[in-house]
Design brief:
Blueprint (H helix, E strand, L loop, with lengths): L3 H22 L4 H26 L1 H9 L5 H28 L5 H22 L3
Length: 128
């Protein structure tokens, strides 16, 4: 039987992916896109904190960082860190776009890389 924390975290992560899809679909409507994507970021960070409090993920990460093996956990962590970095870059470039500074190309490239990392993060979360 699965731990209820895993089920809750996985459910929240699934919800975030659905919201990201809606945010991506509505990317041309800033009044919808921006709040959805910011909500996804807040939920994802809250989920990381929930995982940390429930399973001690950061301590486990630090313990395995110097050990051989557990490569899948390391790959998952890399996707997680890249996802969080992608949110930050998206917020920064999105803010510049709102101010009329043309960084659309960077924002789009980051969005594509972010999406790949977020989906990979989701997939590997079921394997670690």
């Amino acid at each position: 039987m699965q731990d209820w924390r895993f089920v809750a975290s996985s459910s929240v992560s699934t919800l975030v992916l659905v919201l990201i899809a809606i945010g991506l679909q509505r990317r041309h409507d800033r009044r919808v896109h921006i709040p959805i994507m910011l909500t996804c970021f807040v939920i994802d960070v809250a989920n990381v904190l929930f995982i940390e409090l429930g399973r001690g993920a950061v301590m486990r990460t630090l313990e395995t960082a110097t050990q051989a093996g557990e490569w899948l956990l390391k790959v998952h962590i890399a996707f997680s860190v890249m996802t969080l970095a992608g949110y930050v870059v998206a917020a920064l470039t999105g803010s510049k776009l709102r101010k009329g500074i043309d960084v659309r190309k960077v924002h789009r490239w980051n969005g594509a890389i972010f999406l790949l990392n977020r989906v990979a993060n989701y997939a590997t979360s079921f394997m670690v």
